[in-house]
Amino acid sequence: MGARRKLRVLAAMSGGVDSAVAAARIAEEGHEVVGVHLALSPNPRSHRVGARGCCTLEDARDARRAADVIGIPFYVWDMAERFHRDVVEDFVSEYAAGRTPNPCLRCNEKIKFSAVLDRALALGFDAVATGHHARLIDGVLRRSVDASKDQSYVLGVLTREQLKHAIFPLGGSTKAEVRAEAARRGLAVADKPDSHDICFIADGDTRAFLAERLGTAEGPIVDALTGEVLGTHRGAYGFTIGQRKGLGLERPAPDGRPRYVLSIEPVSNTVKVGPRSRLQVTRIIGERPVWNGPVAEPYEPITCSVQLRAHGEVYGCRAWVEEGRLHIDLDTPAYGVAPGQAAVLYQDDMVIGSATIASAAG
């Protein structure tokens, strides 16, 4: 058996423990590795601080220190303009249209595996490595062995061509193993907390962030069962399907049970609420489907499973493509399915495709 080919690999280094260990593993295998940190804000202090995001000055310094310990060249690439256009503006426009976007998924699609990968290939690199917890086996995306940290869902939008030039070194390890390895390697980020929040919303207040960009406009909160106006809000964009808390209603439902957001109508600026039972969904239609696994685009129903939000429940289903849209029939009802989120299809632990949820019905 011949020696493994030496690759030129661009390691995307966020400043966290995962991307640092991913870069170290690739370098240790003998590949030519260059570390790159993405500057995603024209003013880094406007993004999260205190090791909470992936866009801060602190993160850039942590990434540089990790590259020094590993012994690889390190650069910072300014992606602020592209990030603002493809992720931040998309986030705002999706909420304005009554949908609920996933900015981390969009960042993977548009920044890390489009803009960055395109530039890397143009510069003669063979692949981009990241610290995502997922596995690539023979070009097929699979779940991480650490189910609690699995990130295959937010990678499910990638194309076969993008996956062909991707490396995910951590998919066979648990997060505890990654942290222990970072400590052994002398990486200062070994105990750095994971980021969970939207990096470009500095204080974590999504509603205030949207209000600053979309303005405020009072509208009704309506009981979907009776048509009664129960209260008012300052912008329909501040709600998401399935939301229970923060509705600001003064009186409970007649049966004493909580109300949930059932629909968001941006044109009339109306939010409709009602019982959880009205959130039940058994049929989903997705737009812009991507087929990135070994399964051909199915024009007849196939049996598989679907995940409808990051770290969400997985549902058995039948799925097929009709007139360019993905149709999904669930075996058991789901609740609170929000248009704008991704529906990622699996067979066992293998990703076979995805689509953006356009609509859902009971």
From TrEMBL:
One of its GO terms (molecular function) is tRNA-uridine 2-sulfurtransferase activity. It is found in: Cytoplasm. The record marks H132, Q341 as: Interaction with tRNA. One of its GO terms (cellular component) is cytoplasm. It catalyses: S-sulfanyl-L-cysteinyl-[protein] + uridine(34) in tRNA + AH2 + ATP = 2-thiouridine(34) in tRNA + L-cysteinyl-[protein] + A + AMP + diphosphate + H(+). Residues 283-357 form the tRNA-specific 2-thiouridylase MnmA-like C-terminal domain. Its EC number is 2.8.1.13. Residues 208-274 form the tRNA-specific 2-thiouridylase MnmA-like central domain. Keywords: ATP-binding, Cytoplasm, Disulfide bond, Nucleotide-binding, RNA-binding, Transferase, tRNA processing, tRNA-binding. Catalyzes the 2-thiolation of uridine at the wobble position (U34) of tRNA, leading to the formation of s(2)U34. NCBIfam families: PRK00143.1 (NF001138), trmU (TIGR00420). This is tRNA-specific 2-thiouridylase MnmA. It comes from Thermobispora bispora (strain ATCC 19993 / DSM 43833 / CBS 139.67 / JCM 10125 / KCTC 9307 / NBRC 14880 / R51).
